[in-house]
Amino acid sequence: MNTQPNTQYKPKILLARAIFPQALAKLEETFEVRSNQADRVLSPEELQKELSEVVGALVTGSECIDAKALAHAKDLKVVANISVGYNNFDVPAMTAAGVMATNTPDVLTDTTADFGFALLMATARRITESEHWVRNGHWDKWSIVNNPLGMDLHHSTIGIIGMGRIGQGIAKRALGFGMKVIYHNRSRLSEADEKACHAQYVSKEELLRSADHVILVLPYTAENHHTIGVKEIALMKPTATLVNIARGGIVDDLALAQALKENKIFAAGLDVFEGEPVVNPELLKLSNVVIAPHIASATEKTRRAMVDLAVENLRAALAGKKPPSLINAEAFKT
Fold it and tell me: In the annotation, is 225 catalytic?
């Protein structure tokens, strides 16, 4: 950790991971910044020590903010997640410690929805597999039947599990392909939102049975752990695809690998994994899986917007103001 020298008192903050240099320089005008521009993932013990010495922190999904991490963080007021998801936060523990928790919703909605649809297309049309096929010298002629044959998206049925901002964004993109949109969500959308997405609410079981393409966009919670496992995959069509741009742990990766190996479903597109950055080795052996390294929000414009919003949340909290995307309102004291 590099601590910048001060000629006057500045509140200490932690940047647990690397951010854009321009944003770092701006923060250094106001704060004493404990920076990690080497982008090394801190151990739990290192994170606990760092949090004990600062009033605020910017973190990512790699940093688990739980009771143990907060045990000695007596001066900590806010932890700003540079992510819309916050399953790395123990929100009750943070609230009990009087620490505000924030995230970065909205700014990554369209970028993530774009990527979700791109991953769906790559999966259904076997783009990654086809590229490898060409690179490995297997393409010696055009053929009607002896090229990698994929599944159509146009006029098919897409099933979206998790119909928040990103899920609705994917639904609207699906309309351009003439797809029928069905969805399952913890709570049903308003009639106006369903109409805007041309989406029909169904049970999870009906969605899995009916959809040609299933895409997961739900937050990770204890209740959502292994939302897709052996039983759920067995309900799907053998010609169906499964795309996960939500969080690792929502899919039982080992069960999925076995199903793909046995051709119980056609293919899968995965941007997130259980235990990432480690990927289940059984998935890596398969050609009918498109794999990406958790990059659904990874455009420069969007990542800058995420950092900017996280910084705005942190600044507001440390100025005694309510952060714009506060998760635990109970921790805010006027």
Answer: no
Where along the chain do the CATH 3.40.50.720 domains lie? 2-105+300-331, 109-291
* CATH architecture of the domain formed by 2-105+300-331: 3-Layer(aba) Sandwich (3.40)
Active-site annotation holder among 165, 225, 294, 304? 294
Say yes or no to pLDDT of 148 above 80. Answer: yes
- Predicted local confidence at residue 8, as pLDDT: 76
277, 290, 82, 274 alpha-carbon torsion, rounded to 10°: -40
**Rounded distance, CA 282 to CA 274, Å?**
13
What's the confidence (pLDDT) of residue 334?
A: 58
Question: Is 294 assigned a catalytic role?
Answer: yes
Residue 13 pLDDT: 98
From the list 17, 34, 125, 247, the catalytic residue is 247
Answer yes or no: CATH 3.30.70.100 is held by domain 109-291.
Answer: no
Residues 86-97 have pLDDT tens digits of 999 999 999 999
Per-residue DSSP letter, 88: T
CA quadruple 38, 114, 186, 244: dihedral sign: negative
pTM of the model as a whole: 0.93
Is 276 known to be catalytic? yes
Radius of gyration of the chain (CA): 22
Instruction: Note whether 233 and 265 are within 8 A (CB).
Output: yes
